[in-house]
Write a structure and sequence with these properties.
By secondary structure, the chain is α/β, with parallel strands linked by helices. The chain has a domain at 14-64 and 96-140: Ribosomal Protein L13p, Chain: A. Helices cover 28% and strands 18% of the residues. The chain is built from five helices and six strands; from the N terminus they run βαβαββαααββ. It has helices at residues 25-37, 68-71, 89-95, 98-106, 113-119, and strands at 15-19, 53-57, 73-77, 84-88, 122-124, 138-140. The strands form two sheets. The protein has a four-stranded parallel sheet with strand order 5-2-1-6, covered by helices on one side. The chain has a two-stranded antiparallel ribbon with strand order 3-4. Helix 1 crosses helix 4 (98-106). The longest helix is centred in the N-terminal third of the chain and has 13 residues, at 25-37.
């Protein structure tokens, strides 16, 4: 039995929509990262980007369990001395709710050229609307 290795030109990508409303952040991020990398497909090849495009809607309604809204810290560093700013998850959700999902997914992707290319296929929107209706995306439900 031969092992199948995907070639770059053979990959057919489709658009997948995840609704983040009421789903725990970590569980959602795992499903998104697997869809971006292509690990949910039988043609998965580790060194080739075989994944789909992922659209996430309702990012502002993602669920953080426990007391993480107040205790989870996100950091921005400007590069200058005393340029480190820290924000709680509640502050990030208020300013840019898409960052919660983007940071969680980025942490689950490989670092390097392949990971950066994979990450570019992620589109996150705070509300229920997205501009990708022309691509005929299919909805995916995340079970708890």
């Amino acid at each position: 039995m031969k092992t199948y290795l995907a070639k770059t030109g053979e990959i057919e990508r489709k658009y997948i929509v995840f609704d983040a409303a009421g789903i725990p952040l970590g569980r959602l991020a795992v499903k998104i990262a697997n869809a971006l990398r292509g690990k949910d497909r039988p043609t998965y090849t580790p060194h080739i980007d075989t994944g789909n495009f992922v659209v996430v809607v309702n990012a502002e309604k993602v669920l953080l369990t426990g007391n993480k809204d107040k205790t989870k810290i996100y950091q921005n560093y400007s590069g200058y001395r005393s340029g480190l700013k820290e924000y709680t998850a509640a502050e990030i959700r208020e300013k840019n709710p898409a960052r919660l999902i983007q940071d969680a997914v980025w942490g689950m992707l490989p670092k390097g050229r392949l990971g950066r290319a994979t990450y570019k296929k992620l589109k996150v929107y705070a509300g229920p609307e997205h501009p990708h209706a022309a691509q005929k995306p299919e909805n995916v439900t995340v079970t708890l």
